[in-house]
Design goal:
Layout: E1 31-38, H1 49-52, E2 58-61, E3 64-67, E4 88-95, H2 100-112, E5 187-192, H3 195-198, H4 202-207, E6 211-215, H5 223-235, E7 241-247, H6 253-265, E8 272-277, E9 283-288, E10 293-296, E11 299-302
Parallel strand pairs: 5-6, 5-7, 7-8
Antiparallel strand pairs: 1-4, 2-3, 8-9, 10-11
Helix pairs in contact: 5-6
């Protein structure tokens, strides 16, 4: 029984993590066929594989991705490339046949269930709780922070608001065009959606003087388009540099991987840097991007050159 090695991970579309599963149906003659296998030791519970499975065969249970039932898995392996840890393989095993009707019933049951309302968050920092909403994925785990700085008194607040450093519109990566004049020869900032909300001085410190593209490696669909556009930024727009700003959560590593894959595909090289932002806005790590990869600050980053 030889596992099929998972493809190199590409940033995946993310959805909500399943919290309850339907009882798998019994019956069906056993036969040797291809089925996914999830290595529990490698799985970190990020949940990127869950929405990648159209049949709903995978769920996050007790902080780990698990195959709900063999009858829900068609063995096609669409989830393989969405695991950042390479924890998913395909094996030939004795299993019940794939059951399309059972999949349809499961989807209908999941759609009809009422959502669970999470408990209120107490004041002050929230400790890690394996039973809390989003406990399997650090990016979805509920947290509340204490006040870190006092709001300035009215007398010290500037009379006019601080100007925006944004130089163009649109900014979402699906909507921007590499042919736009503001990308030609520009220093480009590729930021995860959450970054600007976490970093208090984002406009002045990081956005000023740069053209911007934003994306969410966890929730955005059709990210093959992102790869094509990033490659076009380098080759066709002739950008001067690319800075990638991501949050410290594992799913944000998908944006770094997209940038690195685009750089590998491009016919020219540009300086690339990455900044990792903590959930309270601190810059946890910063440096140039260069292969091979290693893990730092919760996000898979290439080592510094």
């Amino acid at each position: 029984m030889t596992p099929v090695k998972a493809r190199a991970p590409i940033a995946a579309t993310m959805g909500s993590v399943a919290k309850a599963v339907a009882r798998p149906p019994a019956g069906g003659e056993m036969a040797v066929r291809e089925l996914i296998r999830i290595d529990e030791a490698l799985c970190d519970g990020c949940g990127e594989c869950v929405p990648a499975c159209a049949e709903g065969a995978i769920a996050i249970i007790d902080g780990k991705a698990r195959l709900v039932s063999d009858v829900y898995c068609d063995g096609m392996g669409a989830c393989l490339g969405h695991c950042p840890q390479g924890a998913i393989t395909i094996e030939k095993v004795e299993a019940r046949p794939f059951d399309e009707e059972a999949v349809a019933r499961r989807k209908l049951s999941a759609h009809s269930r009422q959502p669970t309302v999470p408990p209120p968050i107490p004041d002050g920092p929230r400790p890690a709780d394996p039973q809390a909403h989003g406990a399997g994925c650090p990016g979805s785990r509920m947290q509340q922070f204490g006040q870190r700085a006092q709001v300035p008194e009215a007398a010290t607040v500037p009379e006019s608001p601080q100007p925006s450093a944004l130089r163009h519109w649109p900014v979402q990566l699906h909507l921007v065009s590499p042919a736009a004049p503001y990308f030609r020869g520009a220093d480009v900032l590729l930021a995860a959606d959450c970054v600007a909300f976490a970093v208090g001085d984002f406009h002045r410190t990081h956005l000023a003087g740069r053209s911007l593209a934003i994306a969410c490696p966890k929730l955005d669909a059709h990210q093959d388009v992102y790869l094509d556009k990033l490659t076009a930024f380098i080759d066709e727009a002739g950008i001067a540099s690319l800075t990638v700003m991501v949050m410290q959560v594992p799913c944000c590593g998908g944006l770094v991987r997209l940038a690195m894959q685009a750089a590998a595909r491009a016919s020219r090289q540009v300086p690339m840097r990455c900044l990792v932002v903590g959930v309270q806005g601190d810059i946890l790590d910063e440096g140039p991007l260069a292969l091979p990869q290693r893990e730092r600050a919760g996000v898979s980053l290439p080592v510094r050159s």
